[in-house]
């Protein structure tokens, strides 16, 4: 507890802790930290370490053999699902970033501008946000199913939207967007409420058009929220899983990094090292965005 | 982030000003666009309700573009075929302790972080928050192996390990959700004036007493918002429950919908009824506690 040095901080109650209070503080911090460490932080490190070893998953860990970059090499060269999975994750990301997120933003801006009588719009747009992605997969099955789906009934086609590898990624993206748009709208709506109306008024008096005002005044002011939405979009695209798992367990056109990692531990064969290499690749990609996010959020925090 | 103060009283603010504005072409176009979006967004759900109320025999004969064949039978059939009574119980067994523990742990950490200005506070907060954002699949292998190796008494698990127990799912949910809750609660607690602790310190109230009797009651609004949100998220959690519980009997309701969809034949009306039953608790929470839900979501401006 020697970190409490400046007199300013002593005023907040530090420094003068009784033994009993010290025990209390240690337990209050210690127990949650222990749970988070053993189930989040250490597993993250373990995934990285295991990716450099050959371990059968049952024997003692000391018998695991170091294999260097073998699993990574196998992933990029001979594992058939790797590049499709990367490609699908990138398409997923692009669709969320270039389509779903802008739609959500547009709705938020319009709702914020109108303000009155928009309760119904808000409610309907973010209704899907309370549903689980697994459930959303089933709700959209009623649209996409080959024999019983509404889309085929209306169009007179007999396409298996969820099963045919030419279409199923796009079907999954429509179902995901259904939720993502509402979520983004909600975040931006909160962000727009925080923008000082005086700023917009000032721009209006200067003769700037509404669109110009938005892009030159409102949007830049919302910088922290833009980053949060961006990071959420990226991370959610990277960890997309539930929806494709309920559709077909991520096969035949729906391979994603998350489903491939899962397949290597639950399922036919346990390939600990190889699965960990895929997991490490996911960790590497997500940590970039997490770091950006933490920087922004913690800077806000420090204010 | 000043979010709590800003968003606890949301949405209604500017309504008076806007209603006085004249109806311009732009406003009409805006309402047409938003109305169209609203209809488009409501449609899949309303269609699911409709499908759930029709008999399979009728729709397979007349097609889904027909009208008629209404029945409530799908609901009772889905309830039985999916064993939903037991699955709802499983969901409750997982969700209730996980929400309570997440909030309890998070408020303890948030209290320490906001009450003292230690240097490692920011790092702890960042670590907790980062954990919430990691892709769970990337941690699956070590967590799976860990649970497989942790031996527990047989009254907890018949296999003798934590794998395939509700406790494992509860713990992993708590570990993931504590980060987000800590972040939201620490923001809220930092905004509390530190004078509230002064008389307690003069009285010699212990730190635990200050936490339990002063801080927690003051945090009731944000705890309510977080509880609403976390209950929905953990109820909706699919991945951990699916991979850690290999025994279908233990699945919570969200993971068990797959039981209704057969490998070779699927009755979509039955699936629709099952979906509606599963969606009902979250929809009720959403409509009854919408304000809490929205403020919880925007307090942290995050989730993932």
UniProtKB/TrEMBL annotation, chain A:
Family: Belongs to the binding-protein-dependent transport system permease family.
Protein name: Carbohydrate ABC transporter membrane protein 1 (CUT1 family)
Membrane topology of this protein: Multi-pass membrane protein
A Pfam family recorded for this sequence: BPD_transp_1
Stored Gene3D superfamilies: MetI-like
Occurrences of domain ABC transmembrane type-1 (ranges): 86-293
PROSITE patterns in the record: ABC_TM1
InterPro entries referenced in this protein's UniProt entry, alphabetically: ABC_transporter_permease, MetI-like, MetI-like_sf
Automatic annotation (TrEMBL), chain B:
Classification via InterPro entries: MetI-like, MetI-like_sf
Topology of this chain in the membrane: Multi-pass membrane protein
Span of the signal peptide: none
One Gene Ontology CC term in the entry: plasma membrane
Secreted in keyword set: no
Compartments in which it is found: Cell membrane
Keywords: Cell membrane, Membrane, Transmembrane, Transmembrane helix, Transport
Domain ABC transmembrane type-1: 88-289
Biological process per Gene Ontology, one example term: transmembrane transport
Predominant cellular place of this UniProt entry's protein: membrane
Pfam families reported for this sequence: BPD_transp_1
Transmembrane segments: 28-50, 92-113, 125-147, 167-185, 270-289
Keyword Cell membrane recorded: yes
Family, similarity comment: Belongs to the binding-protein-dependent transport system permease family.
PANTHER family: ABC TRANSPORTER PERMEASE PROTEIN MG189-RELATED, ABC TRANSPORTER PERMEASE PROTEIN MG189-RELATED-RELATED
Name of this chain's protein: Carbohydrate ABC transporter membrane protein 2 (CUT1 family)
Annotated source species: Luteococcus japonicus
């Amino acid at each position: 507890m020697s970190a409490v040095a400046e007199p300013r901080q002593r005023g907040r109650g530090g420094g003068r802790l009784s033994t009993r209070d010290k025990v209390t503080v240690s337990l209050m911090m210690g127990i949650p930290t222990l749970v988070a460490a053993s189930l989040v932080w250490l597993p993250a490190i373990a995934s990285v370490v295991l990716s450099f070893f050959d371990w059968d998953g049952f024997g003692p860990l000391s018998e695991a053999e170091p294999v260097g970059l073998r699993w990574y090499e196998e992933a990029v060269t001979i594992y058939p699902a790797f590049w499709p999975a990367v490609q699908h994750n990138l398409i997923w990301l692009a669709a969320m970033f270039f389509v779903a997120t802008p739609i959500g933003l547009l709705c938020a801006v319009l709702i914020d501008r109108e303000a009155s009588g928009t309760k119904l719009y808000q409610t309907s747009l973010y209704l899907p946000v309370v549903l689980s992605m697994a459930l959303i997969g089933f709700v959209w099955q009623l649209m996409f199913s080959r024999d019983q789906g509404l889309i085929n009934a209306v169009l007179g086609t007999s396409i298996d939207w969820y099963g045919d590898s030419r279409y199923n990624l796009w079907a999954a993206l429509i179902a995901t967007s259904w939720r993502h748009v509402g979520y983004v709208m909600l975040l931006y709506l909160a962000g727009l409420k925080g923008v000082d109306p005086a700023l917009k008024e000032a721009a209006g008096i200067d003769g700037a058009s509404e669109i110009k005002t938005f892009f030159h005044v409102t949007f830049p002011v919302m910088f922290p929220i833009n980053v949060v939405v961006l990071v959420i979009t990226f991370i959610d695209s990277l960890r997309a899983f539930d929806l494709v798992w309920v559709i077909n367990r991520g096969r035949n056109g729906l391979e994603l990094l998350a489903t491939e990692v899962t397949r290597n531990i639950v399922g036919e064969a346990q390939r600990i090292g190889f699965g960990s290499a895929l997991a490490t690749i996911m960790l590497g990609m997500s940590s970039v965005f997490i770091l950006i996010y933490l920087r922004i959020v913690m800077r806000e925090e420090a204010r | 982030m000043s979010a709590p103060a800003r968003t606890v009283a949301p949405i209604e603010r500017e309504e008076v000003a806007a209603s006085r504005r004249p109806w311009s072409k732009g406003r009409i176009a805006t309402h047409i666009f938003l109305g169209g979006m609203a209809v488009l967004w409501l449609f899949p759900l309303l269609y699911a309700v409709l499908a759930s109320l029709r008999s399979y025999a009728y729709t397979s004969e007349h097609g889904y573009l027909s009208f008629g064949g209404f029945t409530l039978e799908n609901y009772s059939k889905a309830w039985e075929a999916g064993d939903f009574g037991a699955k709802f119980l499983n969901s409750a067994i997982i969700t209730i302790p996980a929400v309570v523990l997440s909030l309890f742990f998070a408020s303890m950490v948030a209290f320490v972080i906001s009450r003292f200005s230690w240097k490692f506070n920011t790092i702890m907060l960042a670590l907790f928050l980062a954990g919430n954002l990691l892709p769970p699949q990337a941690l699956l292998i070590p967590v799976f192996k860990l649970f497989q190796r942790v031996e527990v008494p047989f009254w907890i698990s018949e296999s003798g390990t934590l794998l395939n127990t509700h406790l494992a799912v509860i713990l992993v949910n708590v570990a993931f959700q504590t980060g987000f809750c800590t972040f939201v609660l620490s923001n809220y607690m930092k905004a509390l004036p530190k004078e509230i602790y002064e008389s307690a310190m003069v009285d010699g109230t212990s730190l635990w007493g200050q936490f339990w009797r002063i801080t927690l009651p003051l945090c009731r609004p944000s705890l309510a918002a977080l509880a609403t949100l976390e209950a929905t998220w953990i109820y909706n959690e699919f991945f951990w429950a699916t991979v850690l519980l290999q025994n279908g009997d233990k699945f919570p309701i969200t993971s068990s919908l797959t039981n209704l969809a057969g490998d070779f034949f699927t009755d979509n009306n039955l699936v629709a009824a099952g979906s509606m039953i599963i969606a009902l608790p979250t929809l009720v929470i959403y409509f009854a506690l919408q304000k809490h839900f929205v403020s919880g979501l925007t307090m942290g401006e995050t989730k993932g």
